[in-house]
Amino acid sequence: MTENSYDVLVVGGGAAGLNAALMLGRARRRVAVVDARAPRNAPAEHMHGFLSRDGLPPSDLLEIGRAELAGYGVDVLEDSVTRLEPGFTARLASGRELTARRVLVATGVHDDLPDLPGLRESWGTDAVTCPYCHGYEVRDQPLGVLGTEPMSVEHALLVRQWSPDVVYFAHTAPPSEADRERLDARGIRVVDGVVTAVRREGGRLTGIELGDRFVARTALFLRTRTVPHDELLRGLGYVEGAVDPSGKTSVPGVWAAGNVVDARATVIIAAAQGAAAAGALNHDLVTEDVERAVGAYGGFSPAAERAAAGAR
């Protein structure tokens, strides 16, 4: 292989991409990770639900992962892939060009947030989506849930597990009468009207504004529309949702893992998906290596010689 030629190109250096690269490096594959360093959870102060790493800042996990990859000879490039061509040739923003036998796309997603003053500044710290990731840190505090879609009521009922003081802000998803009864039964107060701003003071969320009304809260939960960074996949002809449990996509030679194909995957799940994809990728490469070896083998194989000797 040349300097810019690899067995596997991993696009994306989050938990899925790094864990895949770790497994592939240990399988003695030549691997490059191209990482734009723009993870979805960058604003978060801590990550949770990851055994042995609970409470670790997300950036620390990635730094630990990159250091581990160096021990296995994996190249980690701080760059971005601007174009991925069948075959596979990757053109990077820096102008560099890489080739690879296989590709794993682990480029993640971003959250499309409602256009509310103060919300983006609060995002990832005290305005969040996942109660399993952030609920314990705000347990028993006055919490809010922003109604943005029909499933927002279910979100509020879930958040109630972490605090007895939960307010459901109807906003653009007012609850039905049946849903109001469920919310009432769980002691969740419904505040009707459109939210106009998320108020912040001293660098923290302090409450929710609805015109001239104000409801004090210390954290806000909301469901967002997640937008996958799947441009490279679609450019190769990927059909959305066409991915098997190992991460193999509808495009031959291309795997995907993590939030780009599973928006609900937490950090530990994304890492596991990366490991699963790496195993499948290596097996696929082994199969190709064997086929090439058989095709290039000169003369009789030992098995063929034994068969010929037995026939005489």
Briefly say what this structure is:
InterPro entries: FAD/NAD-bd_sf, FAD/NAD-binding_dom, Ferredoxin-NADP_redctase_2. By secondary structure, the protein is an alpha/beta fold.
Description:
By secondary structure, the protein is α/β, with parallel strands linked by helices. It has 2 domains: 5-110 and 225-296, FAD/NAD(P)-binding domain; 114-222, FAD/NAD(P)-binding domain, CATH 3.50.50. Helix content is 30%, strand content 25%. The chain is built from 9 helices and 17 strands. Strands 1, 2, 3, 4, 5, 6 and 17 form a 7-stranded mixed β-sheet that branches. A 5-stranded parallel β-sheet has the order 8-15-9-10-11. Strand 1, helix 1 and strand 2 (31-35) form a beta-alpha-beta unit. Helix 1 (15-26) runs parallel beside helix 2 and helix 1 (15-26) packs parallel to helix 8 (267-296).
